[in-house]
Amino acid sequence: MANLLLQDPFSVLKEYPERLTQTFDTPLHTCCVQFSPGGDYLAMGCSNGAVIIYDMDTGKPITMLGNKGGGHVRSIQSIQWSQNGRYILTGARDWFVKMWDLQKAWEPAKEFKFHSPIWTCNWSPGKELGCVVTVYEEDHAFAVDFSLENPTATKICGSTERMNKSEAESEENVKTLDYGYTLVACVHPKRPDILITGTSKGWIKLYRLSDDLVELVHTYRFAHSNAKHMIISQSGDRLAINSADRTIRQYLLTMNDDLTEISFILEYRYQDVINRLQWNCIHFSNNSAEYLVASTHGSSAHDLYLWETSTGTLVRVLEGTDEELLDIDWDFHSMCIASNGLETGNVYIWSITIPPKWSALAPDFEEVEENIEYREKEDEFDQIGQLAHQQELDQAEEVKIDLRSMEKFDVRGNEIDVNRFIIPIEFESILMLKSWHNENE
Amino acid sequence: MAQFQLLGCLKQARESTVPHTTAKLSPDGQHVALCEETDIEIYNVKGQTEVSLSTLHSRPLSDLCWSPDSQCIATASDDFTVIITHVKYGELHRLVGHTAPVTALKYTSKGNLLCSCSMDESIKIWDTLTGTLLRTLSAHSEPVVSIDIPLFDSSILSSGSYDGLIRIFDTATGHCLKTLTYDKDWQSENGVVPISQVKFSQNGKFLLVKSLDGILKIWDFVRGKVVRTFVSEQSKSLRYSCGMDFLYSADETLDPIVVSGTENGEIVCWDSQTKRTVQRIQGKHADSPVMDISCNGSLMCSISLNGECNLWKWSAN
Q1: pLDDT tens digits for range A92-120
Q2: What is the DSSP string of A14-60?
Q3: What is the ipTM of this complex?
Q4: What is the pTM for the complete model shown?
Q5: Number of domain units in chain B
Q6: Measured between beta carbons, which residues in chain B are less than 8 angstroms from residue A361?
């Protein structure tokens, strides 16, 4: 975006937010947050099942999903925007996964009911309107196809998984054949056919999905406790797992094209060695995930911790709140992090603050860091011929200019998508509010 | 070589009416809206009158702006207010805050913000959902007469003022990011040359600027350099802020056309790359200043001070 080109490059290119800049005092209790793909909107899932969309330009709520009925009735567990920003997927403790079309956000477009509460829901990029859902006390994740008239759910269970079990029986530790319940899932960002799941007994399972076949291609045990969160970097080579043993493990994930060689190399573990706190939520920064941010569990901790992933060192503590923080989302377009508080349910935004450039107001002036002693430059008062100056200006007009082609990436390396979905304004609600005001006056 | 062909006259000139300063094609390319005293008249591009909306403005209108979804029209009036009117539902918001006549309006591409500028030397940014003022940008020392926001990039706002400065603001913070002045204009012997119109190129990388003396310039605003200058014939009166726009023809390989209205009722078209005059439309608008030019796709709409409004199509002979 062009404003970034005109600001101090050292401020613009900071890689993580630094200061708490905004607090959304929400009327409902927020339990999870997610930015829309371009960072235009922030979706907040609430404890009563409502989903509210905030406009980040105005900092005000613009719509509530299902305001004509059909919303969730229990706490929202997971929210996902589709890549183009038009659809939202929500999973809640009321056993429903719902898909919303923001073109008509007042009612769910499709829904599917499981037999237990939902843990997570994710879009599967390979399939139009397909998603992957993990559910309470189920051994496997489910694939739900919302492109059908009546959505169906199929268990994602490898055809070889049974064979693996019988093989494993011969091994000493009989317990390993039981992977436990599947709790978290994420889709590989570069390989839409690869699904990675994490289980309650500390296993990572890597599946290859094709149209008619599901294959379990790799398993890896990271710990003896359950996976709380699993995230994967945009480039797909870094994976982090937050598990109940108070540790975040960061892995380097390498694989070859036909998936015969897959390896998880443990890079760093992040632990709070003093207070032994658990971590609530984790999130990577963009591209190759230079940074990892986490929120801490427990009433004494009110901060977000940010580590550099290449060295494993803590580089920043994001402060400013008076309560424990839960969910985290990171918008890379405007470089801000959103997190919601446990007690008040408010949403906090940390961003980069770029100081105003006063010299921009007067083009002849220049801002200097400190006083400098004036020394006349060699050519400072040279009389440039009127002619030479004119020639210079004329030459500038000969250079070819491109008034058509758009920039594809912003200065931070994010893709600029001009076809991002814009949530239509609900004129009826404006009129309703107006007549309500008129009556009260 | 393509040229503008007259599709039709939407409105004939009438005598002794208030001056007409604005006519705009809708973003969906289906309608033209223009102001008639305090009313908005909407025509479809076939030339038929569709609807006339009356507003609650008490003074004549100086500018109007379609919302990006083509459902609402915002109008700027000499009564210091802005009114957002929905084509079907009527008035949505009345934006009060300026302390002098409002001169120009611009929606952001998402339609959630509306920017207005005024003779009170300020620019205000409004939330269109609630009708509340979000921020005021005061950085000019004379009336601000024109503002623009790139089609696909709402992060910046450009403004042109009678103080001769072109400024670029950050819409989110309201900070001034850049000031463009061509030193020669700014400090010429007969004082500053007021800026009358600013318009971003479609890709948001260049800014077309017209000053009141009728000279157009394309700025590379990031580098702060003039990259093209277009002169038809110099206006001496410095009276009318005549319209201009970029025309992007459907053929992606062609460079856009710069279309500009003059004080004596002509419309001049230049090739933006070669600066060659490709067309000069004379004999329409009866020597009345062409106050607004609005392009969308291959269509162009022009209106002159006397109220004559014409619709043109850019097509091969």
Answers
A1: 999 999 999 999 888 999 999 999 999 99
A2: -SS--EEEEEE--SS-EEEEEE-TTSSEEEEEETTS-EEEEETTTTE
A3: 0.88
A4: 0.90
A5: 1
A6: 139, 167, 176, 179
